Please model this.
Amino acid sequence: MNTNILSTSEYDIELAGEILAGGGLVAFPTETVYGLGANALDENAVKNIYKAKGRPSDNPLIVHVADKSDIAPLVKEITPKAQALIDAFFPDALTIILPKSEIINSTVSGGLDTVAIRMPKNEIAQKVIAAAHCPIAAPSANTSGLPSPTKAKYVIDDMNGKIDAIIDGGDCEYGVESTVITLATEVPTILRPGAVTKEMIEAVIGKTEISRAVLEGMKNDEVAASPGMKYKHYAPKAKVIIVDADKKAYEDFVNTRKNAFALCFEGDEVNIPKLTFGRENDDESQARELFDALRQIDEMGAKKVYARIPNTTGVGMAVYNRLIRAAAFNVIDLKKPFFIGLTGPTGAGKGYVSRYLSSLGFNVLDSDKIVKNIYDNNPELLSRLATEFGDGIFDGSTLNRKRLAEIAFSSDEKRERLNSIVHPEVIRLCEENASGLTVLDAPQLFEAGAEEKCYKVISVVAPYKTRLERIMARDSLTREQADARISAQLDEEYYINNSDFVIYNNGENVEIQIENILEEIL
Ligand code: TXA
Ligand code: MG
Model:
């Protein structure tokens, strides 16, 4: 199909209206993003939208009107809250969902008994819809799954040859799609945040909820309030990871990354390849530029992108909602110490991996060293031990570690009490001694619950026989003693099932396994 690239002249707009009225497809600018329009009442034309976008047929479309009086025929009833929202935000970037009337076909509604309606503010959009003399079904004019187009050139990239015409109306003012709110539920609920914010809506209709899916991922078995929420969205081909950090911490972090791009704010001091999406603390500029940046990432051939986290207030919520989907909910929180946990049962060869990571320049924290010195200059910990195990564990004011061990290891219960006092303290000290990305080398990582503090956990395991021989040689143990030690620990299954990565250390290919894991983590 030959796609006509139209201007915004009166003549071209009339032509676009005729194409739409005749059952054709026309992409046009709105204040949010470009839309891909068809006559909403012509089921065949609407089916062609799904085809051109490659969109799943259960994901309903928004019906656009040019005049408020065009809404009534499309819905069962305009409720008082709907009327209040129409009075306040039509035309603007707000889509309302109401029970549909009979004239809305199930192709438009994706099989639901509701319909989404919006009246765009953009003058070209209004003129095109008016020229068509019918309601216009229009999703964003991108290929399904890709970022919505905020410039005509991206519509051309995705739709050239697939639709009748594209009107080039310049860049979109807001840059993120409209706020979608359903009034078909008891409490009005925002299904997709946009430039019309929750605060603005509540000022008009009072209590409004935000669907949980806006900021969190959908569980596999969850029914989507808005079908669009269950599909992968806005995703560039590159892997996007959001970095939760302030400006300085973000800069320090990305500046040590290899083979990665930064998606940051203007003025961030970043010396790896970068793209910006607006200015810090300016959510409108971020919204306007985000999709453009996500598209350029692919044009630049990035494989991995670290994105700076936006604020989630005001329009920032819409920005964060789109970005977290582009990132498939991948967030690194640099405000917490950023540990890679390294653990494994005795004799599996964790020490070798630890030394190798050290030689690569990683900051490796040895929890055994911290445990060794844990009672030094720690009066608070000592007084808690005294309360638990009595003054008998002291010689004067110094702790007698042997006696503490005797008492604590006399029963499982006592040992658990000791661990419950000491483990949190070990974790606290590890956090205190961490800086940025730190490998936490901890044989008791799981026993201490420290895996909760780790972004990723690597376990090192080895065959039983290898481990047995290693610890017999290392610690001069008999076979029986070595076997007893191994039996007292968590079994290999546990390590494998609770780790993100497993290194099999029977002495071969260990470096390659480590490098592969690092490649995936970073
Ligand atoms: O800003 C916008 O809204 C743009 C411009 C072109 O107007 N349009 C747009 O449409 O973003 P689309 O199809 O890309 O996104 C519409 C979203 C989808 O997530 C869809 O699932 C949801 O609205 N939606 C539509 N009808 C619905 C309904 N009856 N119930 C629940 N969600 C609905
Ligand atoms: Mg869309």
About this structure: The two ends are 44 Å apart (CA to CA). The chain has a mean pLDDT of 93. DSSP finds 18 helices and 23 strands in the chain.
